[in-house]
Amino acid sequence: MTSPIWHPFTQHGLGEPIPLVTRAEGAVFHTADGRRIVDAISSWWVTTHGHNHPRIMAAIAEQAAKLDQIIFAGWTHEPAEAVARGLVEIMPPALTHVFFSDSGSTSVEVALKMALGFWANQASDRHRILVMEHSYHGDTIGAMSVGERGVFNRPYAPLLFDVGTVPFPAAGREQATLDALEHYCRATPAPAAFIVEPLLLGAGGMLVYTPAILAEMREICARHAVLFIADEVMTGWGRTGTLLACEQAAVVPDILCLSKGLTGGAVPLAVTMATTPIFEAHRSDDRARMFFHSSSYTANPIACAAARANLAIWREDPVLDRVAALGAAQQSQLDRIAAHPAVRNPRRLGTVTAFEIDVAQGDYLSAVGPRLLHHAIDHGVLLRPLGNTMYVMPPYCIDETDLDAIYRTAEAFLNARD
Ligand SMILES: *Cc1c(COP(=O)(O)O)cnc(C)c1O
Asked: How many angstroms separate the alpha carbon of residue 136 from the centre of ligand 1?
């Protein structure tokens, strides 16, 4: 019998096999037909310390025996309180408030609503959102509106709101980005906010830009009182070598979106952190000024228990040392494969490496991506190229042997194409 499941980002008409996964540990998972697969993309960028981390799994089990779920409007619980306190401790001090939601996309929706609420509650008509070219912020309507337009969202374009888009600050063209941002910020009415993926644009093709530009963009926004929203859903939790990518530019955003690694990648949870002025703009004795957002599972206790365990791991384990070691191991693998004639623009930021595979047409639907994906699975590696961009983003616990297997598999694919 065929499965009734409609999978995400999957063209069922191609009849590609969909393996059944039974269990995972560390940097690998296992399939029902007995295969061991190296998770080279951290199960779509979520797994940080490794799959089935004993401490996170224990926290989930312990919490599940106590309290499964409770309404969060007007009620609270210790796992959520501990996570909020832990986040305020570990994140930049200006981010004093924590709003829970369930996914990266919803953390972005919340950020956009906070920004508009901030201005509306001050009787300001600021409402425009500024974005960066090639950005990705999620797949809900608001998140798509602030992301790159293309084949992914063309059918929904009539529902997407208008934004101001600054060009991606590619090396040598940074000034155009800063000029465009300055230009948009000077408009009347001024924009409400600028949302950006700090240093590394993920789904846009693992595009990297410099801390200096991030700092300058933040400076321009501050000068025009345009709220600065950092979407660290992918870059957060050590991915780029530091807890937050923003740290590398000494940037503190007004609003910060976190998800993916918030629970170590074990269960879904997200937060949007905000500064005191943004919280205060909503605080009043007038119910009409409250922040109008909730979802059924806001701050689910079991998910919060996982996040609390993740925070404890960050406090007590040398996570950044592991991140640095993985970064170094990634760099030596990248240096080797970069010598291959089909490899273009090799780059690394923290634990992430990426390069383009030289092909004639480079859009997402080009065939090289799916062919590499299938080649890799046949060789026990989960890769999922973005068009002709191959990237490696493993869990921090991956060992040398499994990391080597990822690059050997990619090299074999490149050699077979010659
Ligand atoms: C993955 C991602 C999102 C969306 O997160 P979901 O949990 O998939 O909704 C948003 N922003 C960035 C930068 C992401 O990488």
From this structure: 7
